[in-house]
Amino acid sequence: MTKETFLHDKHIALRAKMVDFAGWEMPVQYTSIIEEHKNVRDNVGLFDVSHMGEVFVSGKDSVEFLNKIVPQDISKLNYEKAVYCQLTNKNGGIIDDLIIYKLGILEYLVICNASRIDEDLNWMVRNSKEFDVKIDNQSHNYSLLAVQGPKADGLMRELGMTNQQESFTIKPDKIGGIKVLISRTGYTGEDGYEILVENKHSEYLWDKILEEGKNFEIKPIGLGARDTLRLEAALHLYGNDLDENTTPVEAGLSWSIPKDKKECYNGKEIIEEQLKNGGKKKLVGLKMLDKSIARHEYEVYYNGEKAGIITSGAPSPTLGKNIALAYVNNNKEICTGTIVQVMIREKLHDAEIIKKPFIQKRNRVKL
Amino acid sequence: MIMPENLLCSKSHEYLSDNGDNTFTIGLTDYAVEQLGDIVFLELPDAGSEFKKGETFATVESVKAASEIYMPISGKIIEVNNNAVETPEILNEDSFEKGWLVKIEATGNVETEEADLLEYEDYKEELE
After folding, report:
1. Candidates B35, B40, B59; nearest CB to A315
2. What percent of chain A is modeled with pLDDT above 70?
3. CATH number of the A3-51+140-232 domain
């Protein structure tokens, strides 16, 4: 049985094309992936991302507990701030990537991927035995809407958002009298907000955002454009670019890991060693040099030998080129500017390694 | 002219249009194109190459994924629609008149090979 979000009827009424994603029936597109993609870059888009998981962590030992399960230092996370984290296993492999928000003293919200909620919960509970902590999965009670794009801030003000927020913050607020949690985060490379709301109010909120959004040229956006948007911003997709056999260092996420964290966390030894010497592989960005498109699991060659694998690939509507992410051997010769080949339907196609992200991100807003 | 009412369609969403003279035009049905969404890449075989019924002869890519296209009957490619290769988005506008893929000369027993293809109307009905 596939699951449906509380906005399912809205998607059907908008004639969305529905697909299965991680066991959820979700809109992949409403009109056209390219059109929707461009609208988020130029104006603003509304996404239903209610399939994502919300886990509340609270209790006397919540900081110590969270510090054991992620490489990031949760003791340094301030009130109403957010941090991008990885849930690592004992080998430093990534079980999931998360955003952790500090909602109050000893109260945290963990947003996880729909496809990983069961694994995450299982791992959290297993690691919680020595801690006085409450792990409360509330995924079934909340809907999550994302408002993303250069016009998102203007629209949110029009909707009555009262707080001014920097990127990576979360604040309780009200929209049309409905209590919500608003965070200035997203998965598009654009400025934008994510709004956590009780399921029973999600349809009201969806309609209100689309109605007020008319003046901002809003469109509903499906998972298809969400994928191309995040790829241009070189944001990882769990299951494609991240998995349990890949460490945060290999995934190019060293920037997110503090070098001086004292507490022990799962996989610390391996991750610290890799922070010094690098991992077995590294994630690079590719631009195809012809019209071909590299896709997930296609092989990458260098000097006639297999040297890696594509994890995500698609046309970039912004650049008008076909782009990809790939793991390649951690070989110094394979770096920005290097030409490699991608095996596509038994033929090799040239691709150039280029810097990530593929576009200039505009999602860092400071007050 | 490719008229939907004169088409035979496969379960894998290719159409076959009989031009008389033992040649046929092959393309993707309007349903297939709508399901694929924005088409961004098309790879067609060279004229002169031969394929058996059911073999992959071309690839179409939408933003999301690559899909193989199969021969509805056996044949030799006599013409390819280079226009569609250059501007694959024309398939989204019209996969019949502008966005056909290849023309073939049948090389098998057409009558037997056509047996599992559906008339356009029946094909449409089957989709519902």
Report:
1. B40
2. 100
3. 3.30.1360.120
